[in-house]
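Researcher: Let's continue the batch. This sequence belongs to phosphoglycolate phosphatase, and it's 220 residues. Same format as the previous ones, please.
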Amino acid sequence: MRTVIFDLDGTLADTSGDLIAAANACFRAMGAGDVLDPLRDAGTAFHGGRAMLRLGFARLGRAADEAAVDRHYDDLLAAYERAIDVHTVLYPGALEAVGALSEAGFRVGICTNKPEPLAELLTARLGVRDAFASLVGAGVLPRKPDAAPFVEAVRRAGGDPARALLVGDTETDFRTARAAGVPAVLVTFGPEGERVAALGPEAAIGHFDELPEVATRLLP
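Model: Same format as before. Here are the structure tokens for phosphoglycolate phosphatase:
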């Protein structure tokens, strides 16, 4: 069975606003105010909670304070869980592309480095969880770019890892596809923009309208 596996943050949905807000909640609790900017620092948000904390501490003159990053990471996750869908939106055409793929006989799933319980919560809050046959997030398995979570997402979707591809937005997704030996389709509307095309994916798309045709071409 042909399978398309999507990254979540920066690919299916722009989650940066809520991620930055969660990090700033931590910094406010420390008395530092809003250290991160939701627009300027959106790219860092898609690299995860620890990356946001590191950036914030660097701006506070504490660039090497990994102990503080570890200490506040759970606080950030808790703040994010409390307000996970305030600013988050699906990218234009995302759900329509998923529907078109399903109608064409593809299995579809999600593979994300977001902690799996948070990914389940977010997709449920957005009303899209039922559109995907699988969802694998960070937890038990290694994180991307290891191939294991991608392969598991394909397996849970009922697909064949030899007839699958990964849709993502960063070098991490590209490296995951390479590790799994599958085509990579990278979106240019994510945080990295057109720069992802330089990685040499099998396809780069500027809108989800392009995906069904690209997936059919790459997985005939």
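Researcher: Any comment?
Model: The CA atoms of residues 18 and 86 lie 6 Å apart.
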